[in-house]
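Hi V.,

You were right to ask for the full record rather than a summary. Here it is.
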Amino acid sequence: MKFDDIFKEIGEFGPYQRRNYALLIIGWMITGPIMTFSVFVLGLPDHRCKIPELDNDTYAVQGTQHSVLIHNYIPLDGDGEYEKCSMYDISQSATKFDNKSRPINATRIKCTAWVYSKDVFYDTFVMKENLVCDDKYKISLSKTIFFAGVLTGSFVFGMISDRIGRRKTLLISILFELSSTLALAWSYNYVMYVILCFCSGAACVGLFMTSYVIGIEWVGPSMRTYASLIIAFFGPVGELYLILISYFARDWFWIFIGISLPFGIDALIWWFIPESPRWLFSQGRNKDAARILEKAAKYNKREVSSKMLEDVVIEKKEAGKIWLLFSDRRLGIRTIILFYNWMVASMVFYGLSLNTGILYGDYYVNFLIVVLVEFPGHVLPLLMIDRFGRKRSHIIYMAVGGLACLSTIFTVNFGGEDLQMLTTALAMVGKMFATAAFATIYIISAELYPTAIRNVGMGSSSCWARAGGMISPFIADTADLVGGTSGTAIPLVIFGGACLIAAGLTLILPETLHQLLPETIEDGKNFTT
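Predicted structure:
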């Protein structure tokens, strides 16, 4: 008998599975802060050059004499704000000043030290390492390195999970995440920081990927979609915890302490999480699997015969070859479109999540809204994909999200600060629909790839999603190319344009709702609606 037939006897999502699922959700939830800690740890406050030989210099004006010194040394930019990267080279004997204490004949030089505003953050890693001006690119680079760790972890922990089991892999991920994130609090330079970020990203994907797999493998086939939707809601809950910690701590050291300690609790919870019986059967450990399933049946107040458990067979599927995704012109075009959609959905999702600073308004409130819009973003597919179809729903998400982001060019250039709330609202609409698109493209891909190459297709698509996360920080940096108020709209316009292209390309894909899924490569070639 097939493994899934067991759930007809022990229950598809009984009390035992729900208990395990609740425990696994805790691990899934606390990975949310790991994916987004850079929002606060790498927060970039207002700053200017430090006045030479003034040891107690601060960004805030201390008095009249301090104000005069600032006017003497610090130029103003086009928006009337302090220049962030240059200062006047003042010679007290030769420099002449105007009636506003501004030097007339002084030359500009680059800063070598800075002072920072304490209004939003008390201390960030950016402030510690002075990652500003010529070194500002290192902020985006560190975020990219983190996502490179996520990409690497997807491969490494996936292989480990298949080799030594889900449960052991889960423990390794928890302990690796605990140690690497805790060590980040003591990063003494940039190199140490990015190495630990890479490790933290790898462990993070190992934890939530393994938690998801264990949870799904314990659930019956008719309840798996429901179970998947449940777990998706708890990522944003973890991010709300990050906001709470960051708002009260406002110090990168204590933020890392706060988000790492829950993994110690998760290590204790691990003792109560059972191994996946599906994996045990696949390894020939039938007695161990039968013992766990009998325990589950008893907990669920159901009965299962030992004879039935002895007859379980796990079908081993041959791994698909990645080049088979392009073995036919039609398959190849669809694969490229899916890859692009995965990349764009991830790029916009993380681009808006991790770069709250490009938006107007209160930094913490903006990130809170960014997180909260994920909840309706997860609900939209639940309400729409079975009613309007996967393809049409995804086109709507990408088109509406793209238009919302593109519209910010008008609110920024023609409204400026007067329409800053509308600009933020449009960006949040883009984030909400990017969340919905991310969930929907997963379903479209799983139903469109033929069974023979579905695993390799989904794995390859996931890689392109990681690539989208890796480039998103640098797209956010395009705001600096224009600078000023107008620069705020540039990343949003790029995000919006990419979404509209994705929506247009999706028109080429066939609808998969109420269709028999393709099994062979030939089925995939002939799959149309």
